[in-house]
Amino acid sequence: GIPKLRYSATLVATVARLGGCESLAISPRYTNNSKVGLAGRFFQRQQQHRAFHRTSSALKMSDEVEAAKKAAAEYDASDKDGAGPPTVFDKILSGEWDSKKVHDDELCYAFRDINPQAPTHILVIPKKRDGLVKLSTAREDQKDILGHMLYVAGQIGKKECPKGFRIVINDGEQGSQAVYHLHIHVVGGRQLQWPPG
Q1: Residue from 121, 181, 183, 185 carrying the catalytic annotation
Q2: 104 has which bridge partners?
Q3: Distance (Å, whole) CA 191 – CA 193
Q4: Is 185 a catalytic residue?
Q5: Residue 130's closest CA among 107, 109, 113, 111?
Q6: How far is it, in rounded angstroms, from Cα 65 to Cα 176?
Q7: Which residues form the HIT domain (predicted)?
Q8: What pLDDT score does 100 carry?
Q9: Is 69 buried (19+), middle (13-18) or exposed (0-12) by CB count in 10 A?
Q10: C-alpha to C-alpha distance for 45 and 141, rounded to whole angstroms
Q11: Which of 14, 72, 80, 179 is the most exposed place for a label (fewest CB within 10 A)?
């Protein structure tokens, strides 16, 4: 005959710093008591795993947006010379802070991001900022360094991520730029989604 169906709820609870309150997601599932077995439990765990990672991604995105807003305010409040305030990249370039070097030449430096968003996440930065804080404020005489950085990023991506990679340049507050020293993200090592956040 027809097996009896039982209503059950899969509860995924996360305490999140999302708007300062707790976030609770309840996802109802219809399960077949006699047939749920391994496949059913696997499906439920897979759904829970996806829900957890969606929440985790939302939290990371929220943190990045807040960091970008703070960085934009600091940049806007600086002395208006176009250079912006000193950044963490100045400390890395001076050797004051350690970094995991990937590439180093006379024009740019590449290193592994300390907060990677994928298995491979590398930043390429100009050694001399020279007012190159955002792509949108780049001068005509900086075309050579921009081309060189993009070429280096492509070579790193080809070597580190043979199945493909993404190049990202965040620009300004709404572009979620958190450091006002132009940098190129090389991201890969997993299937990236589209559209980006």
Answers
A1: 183
A2: 109
A3: 7
A4: no
A5: 107
A6: 6
A7: 88-197
A8: 97
A9: middle
A10: 55
A11: 80
Taking the C-alpha atoms of residue 189 and residue 162, their distance in angstroms, rounded to an integer, is 8
- Tell me the pLDDT of the chain (197 aa) as tens digits: 544 444 333 333 333 333 333 333 333 444 444 455 655 555 555 555 454 444 444 445 568 788 778 767 777 766 565 667 789 999 999 999 999 999 999 999 999 999 999 999 999 999 999 999 999 999 999 999 999 999 999 999 999 999 999 999 999 999 999 999 999 999 999 999 999 86
Residue with structure tokens 């990249």? 89
Return the domain boundaries, the chain: 61-188
The predicted pLDDT at position 112 comes to: 98
* Assigned CATH topology for domain 61-188: HIT family, subunit A (3.30.428)
For the chain, the distance separating the N- and C-terminal CA atoms, rounded to the nearest angstrom, is 48
For residue 161 the two structure tokens come to 């991520």
Structure token pair of residue 186: 């090389």
The partner residues of 6 in beta bridges, in order of sequence, read: 31
Burial (CB count within 10 angstroms: exposed 0-12, middle 13-18, buried 19+), residue 131: middle
CA–CA separation, 161 and 107 (whole Å): 23
pLDDT of amino acid 83: 67
Amino acid 90: pLDDT = 95
DSSP string, 72-125: HHHHHTS-SSSS-S--HHHHHHHTSS---EEEE-SSEEEEE-SS-SSSEEEEEE
